[in-house]
Design brief:
With 135 residues, this protein is α+β, with helices and mostly antiparallel strands. Helices cover 44% and strands 35% of the residues.
Amino acid sequence: MQKIQFIVINLLLLFVLCACSNSSEDNQNIEATLTGIAAQYIEAEYAGNKDVLLNITTGDAKKAVEEGQLDIFNNQHLDKIVDTKVNKISDEEYHLVITVSSSPSEQEQATNYFENVTLTKTNNIWLISKVDRDQ
């Protein structure tokens, strides 16, 4: 009887470990997807590509695109995305802090600033719902 209990307990532990492993992989896939969406957003804002911006935004972020608030980036040069930190708020919402390097022109010294991006899952699709910027 003790052998059966031992086997059952070990099988249960194995199932728990497998479930945790799959959950970790799912989180990594979600984070990679969200980082990709955020990179698309930043590249599109500097390129002035409103079609892309409108397709990946909702709420306040979409309103900013529609009102032309991102037009100021058209005259700027995107040097690179330096870093991205991903914070899970819930299964349906993540917050990303993205360090961006940019300058007024390609010849000028680039400076870093932060884009605080909130992504929300709506109808099984991840969309950027809010963006704040810090110097």
